[in-house]
Amino acid sequence: MIDRDRLDALLARERAAFVATHPRSADAYAAAGNLFGRVPMTWMNKAATGLPVYAARARGSRLTDVDGHDYVDFCLGDTAAMAGHSPPAVVAAVTDRLASGGGLATMLPTEDAAWVGEELARRFGVPRWSFALTATDANRWAIRLLRAVTGRPRILVNSYCYHGSVDESLIVVGPDGRAASRPGNVGAPSDVTTTSRVAEYNDLAGLERELAHGDVAAVLMEPALTNIGIVLPAPGYLEGVRELTRRHGSYLVNDETHTFSAGPGGATAAWGLEPDVVTIGKAIGGGIPIGAYGLSEPLADLLGNRADLDLVDMGGVGGTLAGNPLSLTAARATLQHVLTPTAFAGMIAVATAFADGVRDIIDRAGLPWSVTQLGARVEYRFQSPAPTSGGASAAAADPALEDYLHAYLLNRGVLLTPFHNMALTSPDTTLADVAAHHEVFAAAVASLKG
Ligand SMILES: Cc1ncc(COP(=O)(O)O)c(C=O)c1O
């Protein structure tokens, strides 16, 4: 339906416009020759405009770049700022801890940790929590524990999942239906098909086939995929996963890092799920780095009784700055004052308005696209109905169209996540923010038709 030559020309126009209106950003990028890829972290080069947005300030749902342009931010740090940028309660708690408490790197416990553990237990239903600095590490450490406790070597994930830079998770169902390393997998320590198994999301038969080998310590999954577009569970799928994991003696880990958008206790609470382990990170720190994993009581007991596992030194689980006072003070303030049940109700209502409006624009334009919502998270895809597995969703990607929409929106003050077309709402996101997106999005869609 979309003329590709026209699309290429439109994208080139938007890129040129962005560079022309962002001279200070262009200078900053040019001056960063001692950074690998000119950015502090290579992913920051994932910029539809060819030049990263250099943020000067960010508050609530708004961000201002070094060239003085304001943006409504629906990226929210790819969920790390789901609490809004610099929420006042977190700023106050962190400032107090820094200025009055001090001692940010003592490797000693603080009282905030128990409060956060109790709150996470109440929200997610698993009672024994431990902390990391990133969700990646929470996943890494959780799966080590699960291999140890089962004596089984493999981890099973869904095709095109994302759980951070976890070696075992970089596996997909290949075109021939067999497990394969994810394309682009950088410097894998071993062949991932020997450490992992993979099944498509929503495919219970495939999951059962893989679990039947009897060597899977744990299934690590997002209750809904969020990193290849949002892929929601078909009726009965998650119940089937739980039943199959129990039947085959594999533990079930819900990675709630992104599905936390479903509600105050993530998809686990919203959908009444019963995982053995919950992992999470990003948003619970209100902008300060944190990761966490929670274990069921029987699992924690089993691990606690294993004298052969070195959990207090160099056994492979833990880190010097994990569980530091700043992360936990921030998490306490975030959970107590910012990402509250009331806040979630508001965020989800605003996200629903976002989804309804986008659906309306797409329908009126007669485009065969779809919109999917997971609580405070919304995604539009260039396929209808929405894909039901990671593989199908990966196949539906249209990088040029995606880049064009992102660049068009950026040039008109709207920021989406650089990965696919994901928009997230924070407690500060308003219906006016949503209306600002819709106005620009409708114009972008209209421009495709000439
Ligand atoms: C579901 C999920 N798990 C884990 C991670 C890794 O988080 P971090 O980058 O904080 O390690 C991500 C990051 O996007 C994620 O989406």
Automatic annotation (TrEMBL):
Keywords for this protein: Pyridoxal phosphate
A molecular function GO annotation: transaminase activity
Top-level taxon: Bacteria
Database matches in Pfam families: Aminotran_3
Record's keyword annotation contains Acetylation: no
Essential cofactor(s): pyridoxal 5'-phosphate
Protein family according to the UniProt entry: Belongs to the class-III pyridoxal-phosphate-dependent aminotransferase family.
Identification of the protein by name: Glutamate-1-semialdehyde 2,1-aminomutase
Phylogenetic placement of the source organism: Bacteria, Bacillati, Actinomycetota, Actinomycetes, Micromonosporales
